[in-house]
Amino acid sequence: MHDLSQLIPIAAGIILSPLPIAAIIAVLLSPRARTNGFAYAAAFWSVCFGVTAVTALTTSHASSAGGTHGTATTILGLVLTIGFLALAVASWVTRPKHGAPAKAPGWLQAIDGMSAGRAFGLGIVMALTNGKNIPLELKAGALIGSGGHGAATALAVAALFALGASLGILVPTLLAATGIPAVTTTLARLKALLISHNAVIMTVLFAVLAAVELSNLLPALTK
């Protein structure tokens, strides 16, 4: 259970994803808000669950077969630390110049005319191409798989983890389904803020994730 408690900050790292959240808000402000919103949310959850579950089952099988889990975890932690640091630097370097407005991605303009199928596809793309989500899901799967659980339990934990990690998408989707006008106004403002400050948010988040990974890695490196 100690290992599983580490899933909470990992899920939080996935929740804080400015562009995927901006995308779901754009979907929720479109003419087919309810249908497309649930399609996008379902796709985002599916990717998170799929990557986490496959990694958990693979890790569990390797552990039961006498694999070197400790070494693999250390290597993964080292790769994630270096990767998150590199992404933090890249995000900061490519931020808009001082005083220049942040440009919204071109695909945001095409969301109004999307079908439910395309909204589902957008959810998959946003879940797969976000720089930090896949590495975090791999880390979560490795933690679940190393817990010595059976396949059914590992899949259930992976599903719950994916649900928690998708709250940044699910919460606005459920709120928008209420049809309350104030929710729509708030979502529009949040979308503008996320697009405007995306680079800064991602830089800070990548730096924090790198620090967390490094703190988990140090005990293994100093043994």
* Share of helix, binned: over 70%
* Low-confidence sequence ranges: none
Structural class: mainly alpha
Tally of individual domains: 1
Question: Shape from CA axes?
Answer: globular
For the CA atoms, what is the radius of gyration? 18 Å
Count of alpha/pi helices: 11
For the sheet with most strands, the description reads:
none
Work out the strand percent.
under 5%
Distance between the termini: 23 Å
User: SSE order in H/E notation?
Assistant: HHHHHHHHHHH
Quick check: average pLDDT?
Answer: 84
Number of strands: 0
Give the key terms.
223 residues; mainly alpha; globular
Concise structural overview:
By secondary structure, the chain is mainly α. It is built from eleven helices and no strands. The chain has one domain (2-221).
Topology of helices and strands:
Elements: H1 2-5, H2 7-15, H3 18-28, H4 33-64, H5 69-93, H6 116-129, H7 133-145, H8 151-165, H9 167-177, H10 181-196, H11 198-221
